[in-house]
Write a structure and sequence with these properties.
The structure holds two protein chains of two kinds.
Chain A: E1 4-7, E2 10-13, E3 19-25, E4 31-37, E5 43-50, E6 53-57, E7 64-70, E8 73-78, E9 87-94, E10 105-106, E11 110-114
Chain B: E1 4-5, E2 11-14, E3 19-25, E4 33-38, E5 45-50, E6 54-58, E7 61-66, E8 71-76, E9 85-93, E10 96-99, E11 103-108
Parallel strand pairs in B: 2-11
Antiparallel strand pairs in B: 1-3, 3-8, 4-5, 4-9, 6-7, 7-8, 9-10, 9-11
Classes of the chains: A mainly beta, B mainly beta.
Chain lengths: ~120, ~110
């Protein structure tokens, strides 16, 4: 069984479009995350939710909006896509958000290409 | 100073030797530290976590933490070609997990 799943795996779209990426975890974890990994492979946190509440909101454009309908799901909606949004987006989850929050399980990633 | 720093490599190590990967961090108050492995085109995978000064061993992997020097390392004994990957150091800084840019490790057969 897949622990953290993301859809779609690949997303190719035109500048200016709106797209969503979905994430689900079946580990029973309380905390979920979105990360962006750019072409230089730098993994940077974007958002974190704990039991459906936003707890980390890094400096990302307002065009990015996370939504957590329940603690097992965290979706990412991106408006007005730009070339610089091209990257791999990873969803992750952990049992808690405190000291042990770094023990994270990652999804397979969504490779977003904006043309 | 960057929050979590790693040498980007590549670090080339002969098969069977010990690979030593290093990481320094900026926040003296950090309490938890993690090593992830990422194969090309795949997602990061947790290898080790360490919370106390000293060594923590798990199979061929040993994590070492020195909070006074703000230094954490990962040793891989009896390196195998399958260990070739990028190793990411992650540190809990102000309740956020900050990743280093990773060290590419290449095990030479």
């Amino acid at each position: 069984d897949t622990a953290v799943s993301q859809t779609p795996k690949y997303l190719v779209t035109q500048m200016g479009n709106d797209k969503s990426i979905k994430c689900e975890q079946n580990l029973g974890h309380d905390t979920m995350y979105w990360y962006k990994q750019d072409s230089k492979k730098f993994l940077k946190i974007m958002f974190s939710y704990n039991n459906k509440e936003l707890i980390i909101n890094e400096t990302v454009p307002n065009r990015f909006s996370p939504k957590s309908p329940d603690k097992a799901h965290l979706n990412l909606h991106i408006n007005s896509l730009e070339l610089g949004d091209s990257a791999v987006y990873f969803c992750a989850s952990s049992q808690n958000s405190g000291t042990g929050g770094g023990e994270q399980f990652f999804g397979p990633g969504t490779r977003l290409t904006v043309l | 100073q960057k929050e979590v720093e790693q040498n980007s490599g590549p670090l080339s190590v002969p098969e069977g030797a010990i690979a030593s990967l290093n990481c320094t961090y900026s926040d003296r108050g950090s309490q938890s530290f993690f090593w992830y492995r990422q194969y090309s085109g795949k997602s990061p995978e947790l290898i080790m976590s360490i919370y106390s000064n000293g060594d923590k061993e798990d199979g061929r992997f040993t994590a070492q933490l020195n909070k006074a020097s703000q230094y954490v390392s990962l040793l891989i004994r009896d390196s195998q070609p399958s260990d070739s990957a990028t190793y990411l150091c992650a540190v809990n800084i102000h309740h956020k997990i900050i990743f280093g840019k990773g060290t590419r490790l290449h095990i030479l057969p």
